Amino acid sequence: xxxxxxxxxxxxxxxxxxxxxxxxxxxxxxxxxxxxxxxxxxxxxxxxxxxxxxxxxxxxxxxxxxxxxxxxxxxxxxxxxxxxxxxxxxxxxxxxxxxx
Length: 100
Description:
Largest sheet: none
Distance between the termini: 32 Å
Shape: elongated
Strand content: under 5%
Number of helices: 5
Number of domains: 1
């Protein structure tokens, strides 16, 4: 039951962020009519839509900032900052410490 409540809350919050006030107001009716599988699907759809919008907003902000193109760590010139250890930086970039 608590999973359904957290799903309901997450859907309501995501719908609000997406500017879908009707869904936010009527979510209880949808929950009443939908089984858990369909509700999980709705949650995934809304989360995906929010991710697309967030990515679009990020890319638009980056474009408006007129910063130089995006570079990867492999393209970084470690000679510019000789105190950095390239092996440590590349190891940190793998994020393996998070799993540990």
